[in-house]
Each structure stands twice: as structure tokens, then as C-alpha cells.
Design a protein that fits this description.
Elements: H1 3-9, H2 35-43, H3 57-70, E1 74-78, H4 81-90, E2 98-102, H5 107-119, E3 123-127, H6 133-139, E4 144-150, H7 162-171, E5 176-179, H8 184-187, E6 197-201, E7 215-219, H9 231-234, H10 245-249, H11 253-266, H12 272-283, H13 285-305, E8 309-313, H14 323-329, E9 336-341, H15 344-354, E10 359-360, E11 370-372, H16 384-389, E12 396-400, H17 406-418
Helix pairs in contact: 1-3, 3-12, 15-17
The structure holds pyridoxal-5'-phosphate.
The site of pyridoxal-5'-phosphate (PLP) has 15 residues, from helix 4 and helix 5.
Length: 421
């Protein structure tokens, strides 16, 4: 099946007289005929359902759909993108370990890596994604267990150099974890370019309608956990009947270990109803992504021509620094554009407040066009000097193009730009 078909049909195939649409199984638990049967499920929890803290039929249908879209061996949904990132790292790194991340990543991920993981004794070593392989190599320590980056960085909109980062990760016998939120599997399939683990905030394009917060981890099944660096995957797990994940589950060792250890203990599994809503978004993902990209490219070109705009960042523009990488790895550059308005903070705010169709909200990748002013919203505690140091201009506006008619979106931008001098 191709992507459009997988979006509609993967993960759930009703049999004779069963519901056409994935049912919402809003039940915390599952009934068995005998104690012996329940006991056998505890011995082999992947065989059947026990309790909705780690598996539920509605959520599993979505997990299987996303795994198929990404080309992985398995997936596990979480209650948020943040929870997906957290568990993806904790499944590999223990206290005393480190991992490498590119600097241009989502702000929430920076907090998690720089503060909360640090408190747990896990060090994040930041590297400039533009650095050479030799320079990045110098950042590795003997306790370094993974490399992390974003396909299209939020909010920098830089495209990841998959070849460089997967080469260097694999040379050091560690997996490459990629946050594929902005691209979605429709615009990029990171496993084809050497990524080993993918995470998503499904809150963004996958849902698209701004109705559920969620995340997912997908396992490629390609990484060799028996290479000597990851004894927890190979040696018997005392907390689970002495199971060796690599021996018992082979290619699915990573994702099953994540479910059996981390989902069991942290309990960040989504509700069936949220998974149902996410599935509705996924059904149209392929169609929507094409239109977001088409609309955003037109909007980006419009901004490029405007004399009120100092600069436009969109990987789909020929002048963009990420244009070549976008051509190599992406089928489109998503709907998110960054612009710097001439005249700094005041004009940026004037522009945003003058928009009539586009809404002012702390979100991105909505089906409706929305805008955010980092300097006065997500990064408002920083002074203008600190903003510059963080790479955020006071005139920067993040513009998330939606699926309204392109002429309506552009008319709205035009009238708002006309209100600033
Ligand atoms: C929003 C976002 C996250 C965090 O996801 P939540 O669902 O908000 O927890 C992680 N990565 C990227 C790239 C994001 O845009």
C-alpha cells in the first residue's frame, strides 16, 4: 500500500459484520475465563491485553498505522510528544550516561534535556548540526548512548543532515533518534536515511485539528542492541520474569522494552478516545500534507517579495540554507514559515494583531492558519539581547499556514502588512 492508502486502511481491518470505523474501546481492563489464562498473559504480556495502562485496542490500531507509515516494526503511543521524547531516551540511557543532540530543537525538548534529564543524571551534549563529522566525533564520550535531532527543526526550520548524523552515530555504535513531527512520514521517512528510532508529537500535523495532545515512538527494528553497549537489552530483565529483550523479541526489542518497563512504570498511555481522534486526523494526513506544503510555498514566496519583510525562512525556497537538504530528504517543507518583520518587535506585534483570518495561538501545524510571536509569548522572559543570543529576532513571527483557500490567506497577510509602516 502507498501512504494515502495506509492512512485509511492500516492498523484496522474489520472482519465480517464488525464496525467499519475503529471502535473506541473505553475499557480499562479485559476479561478472562480463568486465573490460569490471566497468569499466562502476565508471563507473555505481548500475547494479549491485560490493562489499558500499557495496551488498548483503539490505541493499538493507531500504533500499527503509524508504524506502517514510518516503515517500522512497532510503535507505542504516549500522552504527549514530551512523554515520547522522555521515554525514547530513558529506554536507552541510565543515570551516568550521556547522549548527543543538535542545538536546533524544540524548546520543550531543550528544557527536558538540559534540566530534567540532568537531574536524573543523564547528560545531554549539544552539538552544532553544521559542524563537520570530525568535530561532532570529538563530542562523544565512552558513556554516550544515542544521537538526537529533528527532521525539520522547530522553530529554526533547519533540515537534518541524515547521512552525516546517522554515519557518525553508527560509527560509534549508537542509535540515531529523530523527531519527525514537522515532516510526518508523508514528507520524510527517516528510517530510509539511517534513523533507528522516530518520535512524534502527534499533537501537530498527525492530529491536525487541535483536538488531542499526544506522542508516539516508532522502532525501525534495524539497530543492533547486542553490540556490547546496551546490556539492558540483552541480559535478563529481573523486573520481567528474566526476559532478554533481544533474545525473545528480536527486531522489536526496543519498542517492547519501552512498553514493558517504561509504560508499565510511568503510565503515560493515551486514552482510547484520544487515539480515536488522532486516527481521524491520520486518515487525511497524506492529503492534508500536500496542501499545507502547496499553500506554504506560495505564502513563503509572497513574503519573499514583500518590502515589509526582512527575511523568510522556509526550506522549500531556493535561497534557503536548507534548500539542498530539503530537496534530498523531503517531499515538501511542511506548512511552517519563519519571517522577520522589518521594524522589530513593534511591527511584528502590529502585523500579528492586524491579522483577521489567522489566529494568534500557542500552537503550530493546525488545520487553521495560526501565528506566534516568540519574543512576546514563548520566549517573553528574555531581553532583546538574550533573544539575539538565542537566535530569536524580536521581529520574528512563526507563521503556520493552514488549509484555508490560498487567496484568503494571502489577502489577510496583505491587509495586515499594509497596516505597518
Ligand atoms: C510540540 C513539539 C513537541 C512536544 O510535543 P507535545 O505534544 O506538545 O508534548 C516535540 N517536538 C516537536 C518538534 C514539537 O513541535
Amino acid at each position: 500500500m502507498r501512504d494515502e492508502t495506509k492512512c485509511l486502511h492500516s492498523g484496522y481491518s474489520p472482519k465480517n459484520s464488525e464496525p467499519r470505523v475503529v471502535p473506541i474501546v473505553q475499557s480499562t481492563t479485559y476479561v478472562y475465563d480463568s486465573t490460569e489464562e490471566v497468569a499466562s498473559v502476565f508471563d507473555e504480556p505481548t500475547k494479549s491485553l491485560i490493562y489499558s495502562r500499557f495496551a488498548n485496542p483503539t490505541v493499538m490500531a493507531v500504533e500499527n498505522k503509524i508504524a506502517e507509515l514510518e516503515g517500522g516494526v512497532g510503535a507505542m503511543c504516549t500522552t504527549s510528544g514530551q512523554a515520547a521524547t522522555l521515554l525514547a531516551i530513558l529506554n536507552i540511557c541510565n543515570s551516568g550516561d550521556s547522549f548527543i543532540s543538535t542545538t536546533e530543537i524544540y524548546g520543550g525538548t531543550v528544557n527536558l534535556f538540559s534540566y530534567t534529564l540532568k537531574k536524573l543524571g543523564i547528560e545531554c551534549i549539544y552539538v552544532d548540526a553544521n559542524a563537520s563529522e570530525e568535530e561532532i566525533q570529538k563530542a562523544f564520550k565512552t558513556n554516550t548512548k544515542a544521537v538526537f535531532g529533528e527532521t525539520i527543526a522547530n522553530p529554526a526550520l533547519k533540515v537534518l543532515d541524515f547521512e552525516k548524523l546517522s554515519n557518525i552515530a553508527h560509527k560509534n555504535n549508537v542509535p540515531l533518534i529523530v523527531d519527525n513531527t514537522f515532516a510526518t512520514p508523508i514528507l520524510c521517512k527517516p528510517f530510509e536515511y539511517g534513523a533507528d528510532i522516530i518520535i512524534h508529537s502527534t499533537t501537530k500535523y498527525m492530529d491536525g485539528h487541535a483536538v488531542q495532545v499526544g506522542g508516539v515512538i516508532v522502532d525501525s527494528g534495524n539497530f543492533d542492541w547486542t553490540n556490547g553497549k546496551f546490556p539492558e537489552f540483552v541480559e535478563p530483565d529481573e523486573s520481567y520474569h528474566g526476559i532478554s529483550y533481544t533474545e525473545t523479541y528480536g527486531k522489536a526489542a526496543y519498542i517492547i522494552k519501552a512498553r514493558m518497563q517504561l509504560m508499565r512504570d510511568f503510565g503515560v498511555y493515551p486514552a482510547a478516545h484520544s487515539a480515536f481522534l488522532l486516527n481521524l486526523g491520520l486518515e487525511t494526513l497524506a492529503v492534508r500534507m500536500k496542501q499545507y506544503c502547496e499553500n506554504a510555498l506560495e505564502v513563503a514566496k509572497y513574503f519573499e517579495k514583500s518590502d515589509k519583510i526582512e527575511s523568510v525562512t522556509y526550506p522549500g525556497l531556493e535561497k534557503d540554507v536548507s534548500y539542498e537538504l530539503a530537496k534530498k530528504y523531503l517531499k515538501g517543507s511542511s506548512g511552517v514559515i519563519s519571517i522577520i518583520i522589518k521594524g522589530g518587535r513593534d511591527n511584528a506585534i502590529k502585523f500579528m494583531d492586524s491579522l483577521e483570518l489567522a489566529s494568534n495561538e500557542v500552537h503550530v501545524a493546525d488545520i487553521r492558519t495560526c501565528v506566534l510571536h516568540p519574543a512576546s509569548e514563548t520566549h517573553r522572559q528574555l531581553t532583546d539581547e538574550q533573544l539575539v543570543a538565542a537566535g530569536i529576532d524580536a521581529g520574528l513571527v512563526r507563521f503556520s499556514v493552514g488549509l484555508e483557500n490560498i487567496n484568503d490567506i494571502i489577502s489577510d497577510i496583505e491587509q495586515a502588512l499594509n497596516k505597518i509602516n
